[in-house]
Amino acid sequence: MAECIHGFDEGLCDVCYPRTPAPAPAPVARVRAARSTTTRGPRAGTTTRAAGTPSAPATLRLAGRRVHHVTHLRTLESIALDGELRADAVPDVDVSSATTRELRASATVPDGRSVASFVAFHLAQDSTRWEELRHGALGTHWSHAARAARPTDFVIISVPVDALGGDVVFVDSDAGGVAARFAAGVEAGTQALRRLHAVDPDFRDAELLAAGPVSLDAVAVVTVANDRVRDEVRALFDTAGRPAPRIAVYPPAFAND
């Protein structure tokens, strides 16, 4: 095969054999759709919502849900002896800081009762506070005892909302915070829960306060980190002379990595 003066095979040199540019494509005519002159408003009886705002599912309500209370194993032993969760009980291992307790004692629900007079539950099993606690308990919410504890030292007590009675208060965030909003009762709490769904569909900061005391007979399940803790929970209920609730071993709920 012949070569050009630049050493390339015939036809492969862009200098000696310049390529003919391809013809430009014919312009495509654009047709603009006629703009409608009719303006339509919302259909009567409907409620408009901001674009992209997720709507709460029709099944979203407090009734039928379970709420969750995290406690230390040593405190669970006292709960088993009492047979109930009480807001005025002194925990054997107090994981809350003095600042947290002071804020919750001074915060009030709509009828004037102190937040601290209620047994507190979270709507999400993986709540923000539980995540903080099992990742080292850093920050002003937590005590030195909380920072010294391991995730496996805790259990999660889950109770159906229906077993708490009607004297409950829904809180859309930390009940001791200045921005917290309260809704008393299951029905008002459900409406507040549906509104919260638009900004926090996982409800990781929401609380449900129960007037209490909450009987252990109302507990649906106690979730623990491993088989050893399960056996320990069974033993402490035996010592207390009462049957243990159903115990579920679920390590992912206690992971801190």
TrEMBL record:
Keywords: DNA-binding, Glycosyltransferase, Nucleotidyltransferase, Toxin-antitoxin system, Transferase. Residues 65-255 form the DarT domain. Residues 25-54 are annotated as: Disordered. NAD(+) binds at residues 69-71, 104. The keyword DNA-binding applies. The keyword 4Fe-4S does not apply. It catalyses: a thymidine in DNA + NAD(+) = an N-(ADP-alpha-D-ribosyl)-thymidine in DNA + nicotinamide + H(+). InterPro entries: DarT. Residues 27-54 have a biased composition (Low complexity). The active site is at 104 (proton acceptor), 207. Belongs to the DarT ADP-ribosyltransferase family. This is DarT domain-containing protein.
